Each structure stands twice: as C-alpha cells, then as structure tokens.
Amino acid sequence: MSTNHSTKKSLYSHLSASERGEISAYLRMGKNPSEIARLLGRHRSTISREIKRGSVSQVQDKNGKRIYSTVYFPDSGQRVYETNRRKSAYHKLSYCSQTFFKELEKALKTKPRCHSVDSFVQTYREKHPLEVIPSTKTVYRYIKDGLLRVKPIDLPKMVSIRKRSKVTPKATTKILGKSIEERPECINDRSEFGHWEIDLVLGKKTKGEAVVMTLVERQTRFAIAVKLANKQAETINRAVKSLLSQYPIRSITSDNGSEFSSLSDLKGVEVYFAHPYASHERGTNENFNGLLREFLPKGVSLNSLTTEELNHYVSAINDRPRRLHKYKTANILFELAQTA
Questions:
Q1: What per-residue confidence (pLDDT) applies to 227?
Q2: pLDDT (tens digit, 9 = 90+) per residue, 208-226?
C-alpha cells in the first residue's frame, strides 16, 4: 500500500471575528466542537480552546431558583484574543529595561544566590510593573545566545540537565522496613505537614571523608542539612534522633542504602523505604540535593566545610521564591505550617 507524503507547507491563521460568529451560531444549533471544526475546516482543539476563551458564566432566575450556565459570546472571545495578542509581543533586548538586566546579573552572581531566573523575573515584575520585562523563557534564550553577561555556567542546573539512560532495576531481597507502598495517601498527596525525605550528599568518595545529611519536608520543601563525620548507620541515627526533638518530623522516606538500615529502630517516627533504583520516589529530596550541588560540587572534599557555611547555603535555597508555591519561599511556608 503506497503512502503519499505532501511537501506543501501547512499555513496556519488565527480565528477571525466572523468565524467566532459562526461558532456561536453553530453552538446555538446544538453542534459539538468536533462538528464545528469540520464545518470551519479547523482543528477541534482550536474550536474547544476558543469556546473556553469566550465563554461567560451567567445566572438565571427560574421559578425562584438560581440556575448557573456558561454561554459562549463571540465578542468576549474576540476581546480576550486581542488582549492576549497585545501581551504576547516579543520584546527585543534593546526594548527591555536595562536596570532589570543589571539587577538580574547581580542577583544570579551573588554567592550564595537566593534567586533562580524565574523567581527573579516574577519578583522584579511585581516591584516594577511599569517597566518592560522579558519572560523567563526569553531570558534563558538571551543567556544561551550569549547576549547577557550571565553565562550558562553561572546556572548549574542549566548545564547539568541531561537525558538519563534507562536503567533496568535489579532484583533485591533486602528489606529494611516498611515499603513506600504502605505509606498513607495523606503523605503521598502532600496534604499533611511533617513528612520528610532523607538522603546523603557526598564529596570525595574516599575513606575518612565527611558527608552531608539532608532532610526535606514534602509539603513546604523546607530543608535541613547536617554535616556528619561519616556515613555509618549509627552516625545517621544519632543525627536523626537529635533532629526529632527540634523539628516536627512524623515520618521519613529513605532509599535502601546501608547507611539508613537502622532508621526503623528510631522511636516516635514512621520510616518508609523507597523501591531500589527509584530515586523519583524521593524526588523532593533529590531536587534539593541538586540545588545544593551548586555550592558543594561532586568530587570536592567536605572535610573543611563549616556548619556556618552549610547553614548559609541551605538558607539561600530555603529563601528562594518558587513557582510551585506561587513564588513564596520554603521558609515562609514552613513557619505558617507550624503555626496552623
């Protein structure tokens, strides 16, 4: 069976005001988005998005009862479209606020830095609503193209992200305690405060090297880091036991490393173990460790690291506004959760 492949370039165009009028008419006739798409020669997703864009909620009073309904209005769809078009204009580098770029460079090169590109863009935009500010994506493009003094190497995450090769899990019979499969749903969906993930950050992989133990609270992403002399199970347990009296720790989720083999012996805290070779099951902690690596690179000895330096690095990350939390910091959310 032969297949014909067209080399004609597809031409795309935005919906016109008259097409919006036709959509409204077809909807009144009872036609669904797929039928309207065929009649107008458009993709059904285009029609569905337009209906959503131009729909307005209405309230009708029938026999003393309020009935809520959603109705599509072509004028409303056109107005939203025109507003979005005005906002979507591409800002050339010369049109953007030069003060913004100076402050961006200063914020991203501060050691340790508290801002990511995204958090700085949003914070600066809120403080200076009248200035022309490029989007986060545009700023990254400027950095990649070498148009700013900030370089990709100044943003470790920008150059470290790479495609991971697929690893086939090896069978294991090691059982250290409760499986993550037994973890309650209130922990899985992060609806309850006080549940943490634990891991170690290593420097040089030689005997006698210090390590950093990190714990991250799943709901707020607030992190704790403690320097330890070694990664023996007894050392880990003593450190965790000390933290139990200082922080609201209801449960801990760990990997299957031998250094965490005695965590189940701790009293007053539930301990769950992730599946082998499944670091994504502790993604919150893994992400924090990646951010901490900006200050503690792999292969560098941690023996000379001071507690003050480590606390300074962790505070910088905890004070970083995050899109996930509508640009609130982990520090603020952790304080609010404790008083709730």
A1: 97
A2: 899 999 999 999 999 999 9
Question: Do residues 269 and 208 share a domain?
Answer: yes
Say if residue 234 is in the same domain as residue 281: yes
Domain that holds residue 52: 17-87
Higher-scoring residue by pLDDT: 106, 157? 106
pTM of the model: 0.69
How many CB atoms are located within 10 Å of the residue 248 CB?
13
Residues 206 and 280 in one domain: yes
Mean pLDDT over all residues of the chain?
A: 88
